[in-house]
Amino acid sequence: MSSPRPTDNMIKCMADLIDNGDVVYHGLTSPLPVLAMVFARRILKRDFTWASVIEHIEPIVEKVKLKPSTGDPYVEPEPLGILTTIDAFDIAAKGKLTTMFFGAAQVDEEGNINLTVIGDYDKPRVKLPGGAATAYLFPLVPKIILWARHEPRVLVRHVDFITGPGRLRIEKGFKHLLCTNKALIEFTSKGPVLRRLLPGASIDDVLKSASMRIIVPDKVDVLEPVSEEEMKVIEEHDPQGIRYLQKMG
Amino acid sequence: MSSPRPTDNMIKCMADLIDNGDVVYHGLTSPLPVLAMVFARRILKRDFTWASVIEHIEPIVEKVKLKPSTGDPYVEPEPLGILTTIDAFDIAAKGKLTTMFFGAAQVDEEGNINLTVIGDYDKPRVKLPGGAATAYLFPLVPKIILWARHEPRVLVRHVDFITGPGRLRIEKGFKHLLCTNKALIEFTSKGPVLRRLLPGASIDDVLKSASMRIIVPDKVDVLEPVSEEEMKVIEEHDPQGIRYLQKMG
Amino acid sequence: MPSPKLVSLDYAVEMVEPGSSITISGITFVRNPTLFTAALIKKGIKDLCFIDREPGFALDMLAAAGSLRCIRAAMASFELYGLAPNVRRLAEEGAVEYIEDACGAVIAGLRAGAQGVPFMPARGLIGSQLLELHEKKWGTWRRIRDPFTGEELVAVKAINPDYAIIHVHLSDEYGNAVIEGPRFEDELKIRAAKRVIITAERIVDWEVLRGFKHTLSATSIHVDAVVHAPRGAWPTAMPGHYEADYNAIKDYIESSREGRAREWAIKNILQKAQ
Amino acid sequence: MPSPKLVSLDYAVEMVEPGSSITISGITFVRNPTLFTAALIKKGIKDLCFIDREPGFALDMLAAAGSLRCIRAAMASFELYGLAPNVRRLAEEGAVEYIEDACGAVIAGLRAGAQGVPFMPARGLIGSQLLELHEKKWGTWRRIRDPFTGEELVAVKAINPDYAIIHVHLSDEYGNAVIEGPRFEDELKIRAAKRVIITAERIVDWEVLRGFKHTLSATSIHVDAVVHAPRGAWPTAMPGHYEADYNAIKDYIESSREGRAREWAIKNILQKAQ
Description:
The complex is a heterotetramer, with two copies of chain A and two copies of chain C. Chain A is of the alpha/beta class. Chain A has a single domain, classed as Glutaconate Coenzyme A-transferase. Chain A is built from seven helices and 14 strands. In chain A, α1 packs across α2 (31-42) and α2 packs across α7. Chain A starts with 5 loop residues before the first helix and ends in a 12-residue tail after the last helix. Chain C is α/β, with parallel strands linked by helices. Chain C has two domains: 9-101 and 160-273, Glutaconate Coenzyme A-transferase, CATH 3.40.1080; 119-157, no CATH class. Chain C is 34% helix and 21% strand. Chain C has ten helices and eleven strands. In chain C, strands 1, 2, 3, 4, 8, 9, 10 and 11 form an eight-stranded mixed β-sheet that branches. The model of chain C has no long low-confidence stretch (mean pLDDT 96). Classes of the chains: A alpha/beta, C alpha/beta. Chains in contact: A-C, A-D, B-C, B-D, C-D.
């Protein structure tokens, strides 16, 4: 067994944001959300409904195994049945899909995210893969958990392109959270607020590694590092270390 | 075996309006349409797609057996699969549901039908069962086959309430046909035209038994009565004579 | 998967508030939630607004028991037995508000309700006098223009009944449920209603559902209560389980003529089941 | 049931006109109609407009072969292998018109297409800069008001691709077909497209379908051609039949780097199948 890396602590941090009664959905390119959902169910014993882009509702969680695609049906075997994405998004339109994860190439101080383009839309410096469900679900899902690398060019003041509008979420009183490999940040009407440090990260580090201006409150929690037992569970579901390909450390 | 009655000839007349390649749908309270579909498939060898309110696509036609409800799944057993009414109506919205049958309490000279109310909507003299799909499908289905009793109070000049708008159909160039227990009538921009007499009915009889003014062209066809062999097939599918409860004679 | 929702018939019946709007599963004589309906009328529920596309038997039970304030349907038929007898009586007496709808419009309204949007554009309908009534009298349809081409269409207002009572073939205790055979609009109703009560021929373990390769008609996310109701659609047909019992239906019609339809239903449906 | 539609792969490929719009089944590495796509690029098809929600492998094959004039997708990803490599190249070079869509909007557009209405109202979307682009640049979305409440919504224009190429588990020779496991939007695509080509792992007799208690993913009414295509989704996954072949996918990516993706596909997908 290996010792936990920042990626693993990040998974634990994301898992802890899933509450009892949540209806949780993950999309493509989402190894960390999948493992966070496993962690929440198996270790934190959170009682939530499992849905995803795979369209397998309530797979046997013990049998979940990461592959290079998180849209691959063999990642989440033996579901209770099929819940189509169409159906899941209709549930979202009614506010009943409570919890969704989104990766982001850029996140800014308002919690806006960019998955569309670096540079200008018509003359892209870098073409990004696209926002997928972002634009549709941002105004609808009561709790969104973003995940991103804690770097100045990722945590920016203003995104190049607003694929998902964070400000609108904050105005609606929705939960809008960001897990990085250093910290848990919550977007509020005053700006991004540091809520939790990941093991090994300092406040100074968190602030210096971001272009966005992060508010530091009096009390900042520190996440308990992933234990040996917890690490065993993570590795059981990702023996090849696919999660580290996300380059979160 | 019994000898054919006007009802049986009416079934044959309706069956003959089904063409190869049609997509045919029947609704509730439709013993004559069901038997017409059987007749068209088994005797006239018409190659059409069978759909209905039962949502059974392509049942085994040989096993179709009438019951007091034509929405009863046991009437059309062992389908190829389920084609929901939702799906069938979407097909209709695209003009691909080609052929539909409608009963009517009143039909008028424009081919409008009334299934809603005799008298005023708010103070009904007689409450009718309701138009079901009439209002929705009249503007969409290229061939509609109405069936009704040949009586002055049924074949009227103007219906009390337009549940289904016939004029709109004629303007669109859609086929709009009426089978009665005496005749086949086609609605045209000039009015209802007599196309075919049923065995035993005279032109005089057809005109006198209707309040609507029916145009008689030079050439009027006469339907060959249901043969012994054809009667055997009808009775095979309706041994109890449920079809006669429609009181078409 | 949040906590189980398997409750008794009595408990589920108590969930339905007087004055609310309700839709049910099936059509005329197929897969009506008759056991639940019989329990509802025994309780003496009042002032319900009933909405469905082509209802029949269970609607008439509610009509017979005086449980209804309004009926919205595209057709309310007992087919070869004529119009639903108690519905006809109420409608002709003016004892109930009767909103005649059209099949495609009911589907459009339920679709909007299921999708969480406030209206649904629909084709057809134009030319029928029902359009005037829906536009002016009931406010349920409105002529609109396609924002892209200007084409005239009808917008149907979303239908979100307070309750959907849906009888299914099997369900687990969480409300993950399967309807076999004809679906009608039941999967839309499950998604459009504010609260969903499933009555099921069989209650099964998760393991029965697993490996099932098709969509579930309902999931735990959609459902508020599950009731075990074997033969819960009798005398209407339960495809694959039992056929419609036309003798019982005729008996019900006979009782209706004598004003005893409510008693018939309580005795023959509810008491026999207990 | 009109005449059979079972045709050869070559015959079906000839049906697809250059310059038309096309959608395909599956997502990233699941149930893509790769065999059909390989035959299309071998033919040298040009100027297609591609539309899908979350395409991956087969889209990239078309991009590699220079078959595309435009791409409309909510995400075009090879997931942990990064953006679809040939799509990225074309997009960054400006060699293709790239219309970034959103999942919920693609679903809404396909729903309108499937239902035969010109647009579909949708929630969400407001606040994203994609809305401006769709409103002003592409004319595909428009802000509207609910005719009943005045609430602001987005109308998504109907999506009616000229062709849908859908890989399924089984079909009869008329196009009555079944998809097992995840459906994605494939049943909508079948209904929204002007012409539908089914490629099927298995061609079965009617008798196999009979007694099947669920809705068919496609019926003869919807389908124009059926092609027998065993392993027709490889190297993407066919749920219940075979898993995604990630080694082959990596090999394809490697070939893309060397500009040989088209050759890779023809050799490894098309020639191996023959």
